[in-house]
Design goal:
single chain, 375 residues, mainly alpha, two-stranded antiparallel ribbon, 12 helices, 73% helix
């Protein structure tokens, strides 16, 4: 696609009176709806009574539209279009559309120039109505086709003129015989009579066929009336078991309503159950976290108490020098360490059991001490 072709196409469409503005950017990408609209408009402009399909929703409809337009332009305007390029709906389609628009534009311009005066021709204004000359176009196309067919037959006959000239000269040189001429004329008359008889037989057959068709039409009409009456009778009669059917329909509607209500309730209960399980799971996880924190606190407290008890034992084992002047009795008596420990009770925060590892003094120990003092 060249810029000149696209510019010429837009200018020609504007001059032909296309109601929509065509931009040069419309054919940068495939635009089949616009191409289909332009094709239908050009065909209607060329032949207002032409029957061209306008559906383009399906691929089959688009192909049928392109084929119909190409066939119409080939038979009526003798314009050969490339269907593949038209289906592409891009710059290549513009070249094919330009073939149709150039014909219409040249015809419009020629007619306008012939009808205008010298002053109006200089103004360059086109006032052309192709729809008003539809009958003239039909006659012109018919005459053109007849001229083509007559010219082809004349060309074939002129090609055989050499042989026919010799035969014609021989026939003209030969003297005519009355008996032979009479024989030929009788044969021709007989042939004409046979053709006339055949035509009469065909006319008689047409009349008999027409009578048969009318009889068939009457028969079909009677069948149609009978079937319509039967249909009306069936529509007026109430079918059997209709009451039971209606009751079953009502019962089915009630059962369906019950089913919908139960289904809604079941869905609600399932949702509530899921929420309860989720809350229980969250509560269980929270309890486990709380117990774990309590255990960690108890372990730390126990370690702290054990460290405190160890420091007290070391302080009790140290003997200062000032106490060396005590009596020998006190020196002989071994020191009993007083170990006190605090044991935490699990599950009860803030409660501790305090005790030591030393037992109480007995009476025997007291008596032995008194005896030693006496001595």
């Amino acid at each position: 696609m060249s810029y000149r072709d696209l510019r010429n196409f837009t200018e020609m469409m504007r001059a032909l009176g296309y109601p929509r503005l065509i931009s040069m950017e419309n054919f940068r990408t495939p635009n089949f709806p616009l191409v289909a609209e332009i094709l239908v408009w050009l065909v209607k402009r060329y032949e207002p009574l032409a029957d061209i399909p306008t559906d383009t929703d399906l691929e089959q409809d688009r192909v049928f539209l392109i084929k119909a337009v190409a066939q119409f332009m080939a038979t009526k305007a003798h314009i050969k279009l490339n269907t593949k390029h038209l289906y592409q709906a891009d710059g290549y389609a513009v070249k094919e559309l330009l073939k149709i628009t150039s014909v219409l534009y040249s015809a419009m311009r020629t007619k306008t120039i012939d009808s205008l005066g010298p002053e109006e021709q200089q103004s360059g204004k086109f006032k052309f109505d192709l729809g008003s000359k539809t009958a003239d176009l039909k006659v012109a196309r018919q005459l053109a086709s007849e001229i083509i067919s007559k010219g082809a037959s004349l060309y074939d006959l002129l090609g055989k003129e050499v042989e026919l000239r010799d035969m014609r000269t021989t026939a003209m040189a030969r003297p005519m015989e009355i008996n032979e001429t009479e024989k030929v004329l009788r044969a021709a008359i007989k042939e004409v009579i046979e053709q006339v008889q055949k035509t009469k037989d065909m006319l008689n057959n047409v009349a008999s066929d027409e009578a048969n068709l009318e009889a068939k039409i009457e028969k079909r009409k009677l069948d149609l009336e009978r079937n319509q009456k039967r249909l009306q009778t069936l529509q007026s009669v109430r079918p059997a078991f209709m009451d039971e059917y209606e009751k079953s329909q009502e019962e089915l509607q009630k059962q369906y309503d019950i089913y919908v209500e139960k289904f809604h309730n079941l869905s609600y209960l399932e949702q509530q159950l899921d929420d309860y399980h989720r809350m229980e799971q969250e509560r269980f996880e929270e309890t486990e976290n709380t117990l774990r924190l309590m255990q960690n606190k108890l372990r730390e407290e126990e370690k702290r108490l054990m460290k405190a008890a160890g420091s007290e034992d070391e302080s009790d084992m140290d003997i200062p020098d000032e106490e060396s002047s005590e009596s020998e009795t006190d020196e002989r008596r071994p020191m009993k360490p007083h170990l006190s420990r605090e044991f935490p009770i699990q599950g009860r925060s803030g409660l501790r059991i305090i005790g030591n590892m030393q037992g109480g003094d007995t009476e025997d120990e007291n008596d032995s001490d008194d005896s030693e003092i006496d001595v």
